[in-house]
C-alpha cells in the first residue's frame, strides 16, 4: 500500500510521539499471524492500557534516529510496535506469552528510554504485577514497626498473663 508524503509525515510524527511519551515500548516480528490472533493480542494489550501498531520499517528507523534511540540491529521484517504509558511489565508479559508461538518473535524494546533486548523483556515479564510489588514493599516497610510494637507490648502482656494465672489459682483454691 502506497502512502502519500503527508501520510508518511503524520506516521513519522506519531512514531516520534510514541517513542518519547511512553514508559514501555516493545518491538516484535510476526509471521503468518492470522487476524484472529492479531485481534486477540490487541484486546489483551488494550486491557493493560497499551496499544499495538504495525510499523512501517523505514519510517520507524527515521523516528528512532530522530529520537537518538539505539537499536539492536536493522529494523527488518514485519514489525509490530507496542507501547504503554505505565505498567510496562504487564505489556511485557503479554508479549512474552505471545512469543511462545512460532509466528511471533520478540526483537527489542525500550524501558524508560533505555534499550532492552528480548531476554530482558522476558525477565521484565516475570516480575509480579505492580499492586503485588507495592504490597510486598509495604509489608517490608511495616515489619520493623510491628516488631517494635510487639516488643514494647510484651512485658505488659507477660505481666497480665501472670496476674490472670494468679487470679485463676486463687479462684480454684
Features:
alpha+beta; 173 residues; Alpha-Beta Plaits
* Approximate shape: elongated
In spatial order, strands of the major sheet run 2-3-1-4-5
**SS summary, helix count:** 6
Second CATH tier, the architecture of the largest domain: 2-Layer Sandwich
Helix/strand structural class? alpha+beta
Indicate the percent of residues in helices. Answer: 55-70%
- Mind describing the biggest β-sheet? 5 strands, antiparallel
Q: What is the beta-strand fraction? A: 15-25%
Low-confidence region ranges: none
Count of all domains = 2
Overall radius of gyration: 27 Å
Average pLDDT confidence is 85
CATH fold title of the largest domain = Alpha-Beta Plaits
Spell the H/E element sequence. HEHEHEHEEHH
Distance between the termini: 99 Å
CATH superfamily placement of the largest domain: Ribosomal protein L10, N-terminal RNA-binding domain
CATH class of the largest domain: Alpha Beta
Number of E-type strands = 5
Amino acid at each position: 500500500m502506497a502512502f502519500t508524503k503527508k501520510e508518511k509525515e503524520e506516521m513519522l510524527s506519531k512514531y516520534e510521539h510514541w517513542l518519547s511519551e511512553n514508559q514501555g515500548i516493545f518491538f516484535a516480528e510476526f509471521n503468518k499471524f492470522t487476524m484472529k490472533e492479531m485481534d486477540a493480542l490487541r484486546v489483551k494489550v488494550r486491557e493493560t492500557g497499551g496499544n499495538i501498531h504495525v510499523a512501517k520499517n523505514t519510517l520507524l528507523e527515521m523516528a528512532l534516529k530522530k529520537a537518538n534511540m539505539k537499536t539492536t540491529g536493522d529494523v527488518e521484517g514485519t514489525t509490530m510496535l507496542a507501547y504503554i504509558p505505565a505498567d510496562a511489565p504487564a505489556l511485557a508479559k503479554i508479549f512474552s506469552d505471545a512469543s511462545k508461538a512460532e509466528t511471533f518473535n520478540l526483537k527489542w524494546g525500550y524501558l524508560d528510554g533505555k534499550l532492552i533486548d528480548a531476554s530482558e523483556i522476558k525477565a521484565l515479564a516475570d516480575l509480579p504485577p505492580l499492586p503485588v510489588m507495592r504490597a510486598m514493599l509495604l509489608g517490608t516497610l511495616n515489619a520493623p514497626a510491628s516488631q517494635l510494637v510487639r516488643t514494647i507490648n510484651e512485658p505488659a502482656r507477660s505481666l497480665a498473663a501472670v496476674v490472670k494465672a494468679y487470679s485463676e489459682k486463687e479462684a480454684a483454691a
